[in-house]
Amino acid sequence: MYEDLRDRAITNLEKRKKKVKAMQIVGVIFGSVALLLFSIRYLMTEGDRIFMLIPIGVLALVYCIIHTAVLGLPFIADNDITEEDIETEVARVYRKYRSSDLQDMSEEEHLELKQIETMMRNGEDYV
Description:
Blueprint: H1 2-41, H2 53-71, H3 83-97, H4 107-122
Helix pairs in contact: 1-2, 1-3, 3-4
């Protein structure tokens, strides 16, 4: 059963990695549009150029809101999947599915998952 939990955790982490990749693509698209708007700014008259900064600012604000909604705060997490991330995700999956999906788990696996959960709460490393 622990292997099933580990597989679910790895799947969840891979989904998160796909979200990060999608947000990078969205960032490149938004950046390209902002660069286009900034270039159009130089075709405008001198007095109207300042007003082109408004849509560029709105575009940057919208991207920040989308990024925060999808991935959380930027620049906090590392994108690599480490063993520690997998164990943390196993503990999350265990807490989420422990009621119905984990009825057939052996006593040894149950104790191991309880130990992981306790260590994660205390901030210790699981090795």
